[in-house]
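Suppose you are handed a protein chain with no further information: no name, no annotation, nothing but its sequence. What can you learn? This example shows the usual starting point.
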Amino acid sequence: MGNGTVRRTYKDSLFRMVFREKEELLTLYNAINGTSYENPDDLEITTIDDVLYLGLKNDISFLIKEYMNLYEGQSTWNPNMPLRGVFYISHLYQAYVRKNHLNIYSAKQIKLPAPRYVVFYNGTREEPDRQILRLTDAFIKREETPCLECIALVLNINFGKNRELMEACRKLYEYSYFVSEVQGLLQEGMSLETAIDRTVRRCIRENILKEFLEKHRAEVRNVILTEFDEELYRQLVYKEGREDGEAAGRRRDVLELLEELGPVPEELREKIMSQENQDVLSRWLKAAARAESLQGFAEKMDGSK
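A reasonable first move is to predict its three-dimensional structure. Written in structure tokens, the prediction is:
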């Protein structure tokens, strides 16, 4: 697949843009945890900007008091967020140890901030307001006392969900409203560019993210277009991989049926293995199931081109 139009370089997500100021991030933290911290300087931003591992990018991470917080925005449902959290948190702890000159080989136990991992979900799949995902749920064999666990709190921030949380954090409400407006216009058949521009104008008029949008209008537009491109890219890669797998399965099934009739000539085998068209392979599969001889199949095969 050609992906020349898809931008794969690191960029801010819209979620990260909206909450990159300490004041907004502190309000979000208080809303989630039921705390009432007032000093934004209590937060120490620890987001690792240059982390790009297995295609994963860290949205926001920060320290406050004795907690290391990892916040991730997610526009598609992904049950593997706990595993991604392991990768993220490992990087964050490495950075914490380096920054504080801690000796992991010391005879004295070093003290670490406890991790809190929150995923903010705003995809189209229907999900509950709040749910817990655990790394151990992915283990092939369950253990009573696993040596490793990672828990992700997934909050559904689609517009109309988690009302109490939205009331406690106005900026999250406005972000949810903005995304909902763009999604709604897209569902009506509007182009992405037009949907973004119309949503920006409407939100500014209705005092939704007004100051933020007036200041970062062009950047917001570019970020959403980039996020859309990358999501489309992931969907296309998944679709192509699935289709490739289905074609490979059909080729294998055709050969297995023919091998019951006798040794398959190399020329015939190569012809089958080089075929990628799903419709052709389906016809060959039916022909192989009905064939009484390899020669009979070859004749039907040539006639089904």
